[in-house]
Amino acid sequence: MTPDFSNSFPLRAARVHEVCGASAASLAVVCAAQAKGPVLWIRDAWRPETLNPLGISPFFDPAKLLIAQVKDQTEGLAVAEEALRDGSTPLVVLEISQPLGLIHGRRLQLSAKAGKSTGLCLIPDGMGSNAAESRWRCVPIYDVFSASADSTLQRWELIKNKSGTLGSWHVRWDAASRRLNLVSATGE
Does position 115 have pLDDT exceeding 80, yes or no? Predict the structure, then answer.
């Protein structure tokens, strides 16, 4: 039996979580859509890809997104700590490209707790910090039965959870209602 999705999502507030997989950014923009206020997205300046306002507009108003391009991961961690501790942004998204040690992970958790902000680290597969409250793996699912222009069907799997059970769900974003819908897995 799959645990109740509402016990795992939205992400637990005042904590730092991690997400990996091909649809990791999708979980981040859904979290941003649910955030009450501005969202800070921290990324290394050397990365060639960028966030497209047209791509995130079905999720939330791009005007509420603040992007910080930093020199390297060390600078990004410092910016994330300060933003989480300050608490003026309810969600801080940090793109991670190198392993995050326990000390840095713990510092992020303490900052999130102090500022009552939620942190979300986008990490490569197989990487993660022991300090993370939860870790998700998100991947798109090819849906042969859907001929609609809806967003891509995705599988969100909770692979680490310090405060509950693990689980896996099929989800799809509904742009018209700006909400996340659970979708029954094929054959269920």
Answer: yes
